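As noted in the main text, all predictions were made from sequence alone. Below is one such record, for Acetyl esterase.
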Amino acid sequence: MALIQCEFYSEVLGLSSTMNVILPQETHSQIGMEGKVTGGKHPTLYLLHGLSDDHSIWLRRTSIERYAAEYGIAVVMPAAHRSFYTDMKQGGDYFKFVSEELPQLAESFFPLSDRREDRFVAGLSMGGYGALKLGLRRPDRYAAAASLSGATDASALYERGDVAYTQELERIFGTVEELRGSENDLFYLTEQLAQSNSTEVPQLYQCCGTEDFLYEHNIRFRDHVKQLGLALTYEEEPGEHEWGYWDTKIQHVLEWLPLRK
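Prediction:
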């Protein structure tokens, strides 16, 4: 695998930004691993970070480069700050950035496939919310979306009782009433997708540890999706909101992805 730290300017955000990119490389003599390429432009996983992290965190806390090597898949890890991958009420247009500008730039810089069936998104915590939102709002662009311990019920975050955190959420989403039933509400988005009768429905994956503080949020979202009749791969087992769990589960995600043979 080749690892590239890419510094670039975002017209959407109006600032310089960063993404880490792992590109497949066919290798046979590399000690400890072999690399694979699928031929042509690479299938790509856009891998999103959590609230307190950045573009470097997946490389620092997991073996994502080693895991991805055997699948011949590229991995793009952008910096999105504390944005919830949202066009913020007070701040940058981070959903437009990650859904439109980032793939366009990454696919112009690197040999990445622009085919829907080769494009996937996953993330943890805030990034799990972002991954599901990308898949649900842009089913024409993503064949699969995966959430690891995701903040699947954003409106419930307002119930935490932390005044500073609530104010931060309001700068991102507006009031909880503005969030509910909007394009930033995953429950609303799944309802819209179920009612659309679209043939372009991304495969969905969700996991959460049973000791995670977001576990009840994930159960509510899981039950809602299943009630709507949308296909969902759901996994749970003992685990907390921590990197040992995510290092294991990202391997499950890579195995689950509908990669073309």
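The CA atoms of residues 58 and 64 lie 7 Å apart. The mean pLDDT is 96. These features were considered when defining construct boundaries for the mutagenesis experiments described in Section 2.9.
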